[in-house]
Amino acid sequence: MKITQVKTVVVNARMRNWVFVKVETDQDGLWGWGEASLEWKTRSVAGAVEDLAPMILGEDPARIEHLYQKMYRQSFFRPGVIGMSAISGIEQALWDILGKITGMPVYRLLGGAVRDRVRMYTHLGGGEMKAVYESQHSGDASAMVDLALEVTARGYTAVKVLLTPPTESLNGAALYRHAESRMEALRRALGADIDIMVDCHGRHFPANALEFCRVLAPYRPFFVEEPVPPENVDAMAEVKRSSPVPIATGERLVTRFEFRTLFEKQACHIIQPDLCHCGGLWEAKKIAAAAETYYVGVAPHNPLGPVANAAALHFALSTPNFLIQEDMLTDVPWRWDVVRHSLTSKDGYWLPSDVPGLGVEVDEDAARLHPFEQEVIQSLAARAADGAVLDW
C-alpha cells in the first residue's frame, strides 16, 4: 500500500479557515483525514502541505514515525508553526488510515483508554471576533454572565473567558478593577462548582500579569492561560513562581523541543499543546510524557474545526496526565454539516467511539459550500491609547 495523493480542503468558518488534509492511498476507498488549521496563515499552511507531499508520496502510510521524521528533518530548515501545522494535519491523517487498516479507533493504537470519558470546556467566544471582543471587554458583564449560564445549562462544568484587556508594559488600576469586577460577576453567577479559566492571550508583561493573577485569585480561577507572550520562557517562569493561581501555556509552541525549556525551568503548571500545530498526535504524546515527569498536566488547546475535535478525543482518552479539553462548537451553525462523525457528548464530556480511525469524514461537497475567505484582521482591540500596537 502506498500514498498516492495529499491535498487540502479549506472551509471558511467566519473566525478562521479550517484546513482539512486528505491523504489518499492506492487501496480503493482508503484515505485519512487530518486538520492543519492555523489562523491568518491559511495560504501558507496549504502551501506547506503541498511542499511536504513529495516527501511522502509512494511511501507506506503505516510508517507514521518514519514519515514524520522525513517531513521534519529532511527539509534541512526546521519547520516553524506553519510547517508543523502542515505536518500535524498529515500525521493525523496517517493515524486515521492506520486505524481503518487495523479496524481500531486511534486511541487504542495510542495505548488504549486510560479514562472512560473526556471532560470538556468551552470558550465564551464563538461567532465574529468583533462580537467576542465587545462581549468580553465592555463595561457591562451581564452579556458574558448570560452566555456562561447558557453554556453551563448545556452540561459544561467549566468555561474559559477573556477578562484582561491588552495592556502596555505597565497599566493603571482601572484595568485591574475591570478584570476583577467581571470575574467577580462570573463567580457569583456560576457558583463554586463551575471552573473558570482566564485566557490572557499573552497580552501582558510580567508586572501586569502578576497583578492580574493577584486580583483574580480570590475567585479561584482553574488556571490563568498565557499571562505573558510565549517567546520568553524566563518571563513565564517568573510569573509562575510568584503567581497565587495555576499558570497554563503552550498553545503557540511546537514540538517537544520547544516544550522542553518550559519543563526544565518549571515555568507552568499546565501545558496546552495544540494537536494541529505541535506535530500531531504522536508528538503530542511525547510532549505529554515529558510533562508527566515534571508533574505537569495537559489541557490541549483547540478552537478549531471538527476533525481537530476528533483528534483531541483520541489523545485525551489515551493520555494519563490529561486534564481537560477545549472546544469551540458555536463558531458556525453548520459546523457538523461538513463532516460525518461518531462524536457524542453527555453532561459536558465527550464519550469514546469504537469507529475505526479518527471517526470523522469530511463531506467534500458540503465543504465546497464554504470556500476560503480572508479572515478579518483584528486591530480594534490591540491598540494603546496613543495608537501603538499591542498583543491581541
List the helices and strands and how they pair.
Elements: E1 3-12, E2 17-25, E3 31-35, H1 42-56, H2 64-73, H3 81-102, H4 106-109, E4 118-123, H5 129-137, H6 142-153, E5 158-161, H7 173-190, E6 195-199, H8 206-216, E7 224-225, H9 233-242, E8 247-249, H10 255-264, E9 270-271, H11 281-293, E10 297-298, H12 306-317, E11 325-327, E12 339-341, E13 344-346, E14 349-351, E15 360-362, H13 364-367
Parallel strand pairs: 4-5, 4-11, 5-6, 6-7, 7-8, 8-9, 9-10
Antiparallel strand pairs: 1-2, 2-3, 4-14, 12-15, 13-14
Helix pairs in contact: 1-3, 2-3, 6-7, 7-8, 8-9, 10-11
What keywords describe this structure?
TIM Barrel, 10-stranded mixed β-sheet, 13 helices, about 400 residues, alpha/beta, globular, Enolase-like, domain 1, 3-stranded antiparallel β-sheet, single chain
